[in-house]
Amino acid sequence: xxxxxxxxxxxxxxxxxxxxxxxxxxxxxxxxxxxxxxxxxxxxxxxxxxxxxxxxxxxxxxxxxxxxxxxxxxxxxxxxxxxxxxxxxxxxxxxxxxxxxxxxxxxxxxxxxxxxxxxxxxxxxxxxxxxxxxxxxxxxxxxxxxxxxxxxxxxxxxxxxxxxxxxxx
Length: 169
Prior knowledge:
- By secondary structure, this protein is mainly alpha-helical.
- The protein has helices at residues 2-21, 29-50, 67-85, 104-122, 127-132, 137-157.
- The chain has one domain (32-161): dinb family like domain (Four Helix Bundle (Hemerythrin (Met), subunit A), Up-down Bundle).
């Protein structure tokens, strides 16, 4: 009986190891880009909602954007992706004017709308379209990721812990 249990245990361990060694099918370009696009937008939205309203005008130096202005700038990228992704080849990265968004509620709503609009366009893309090009989506993911890092610094300069760095419950 001991031999049988030991053999079964060894077989289970070997099967598990073998399963881990089997090559897994990598995600398709559309799934990869969708995951990245969702990931970064979720992180930025979480920060926009989380950062204290009284610090939305914080700038590390006078010549750089405030926290709120950075969120508006990221929303501009999503607006561009929505236009370009919908086939508007003449769409430019038209900067949304931050002066039109003066409260945290307005800025969060703008960011949410930009994500919703971009996702609506994104969801119309077929896997074949992603096989041809992953633009404008990857440009916006890269751009938003750079600014995500900037926002992390704004948190730290204010003595705050960014949501992603907090202990998980």
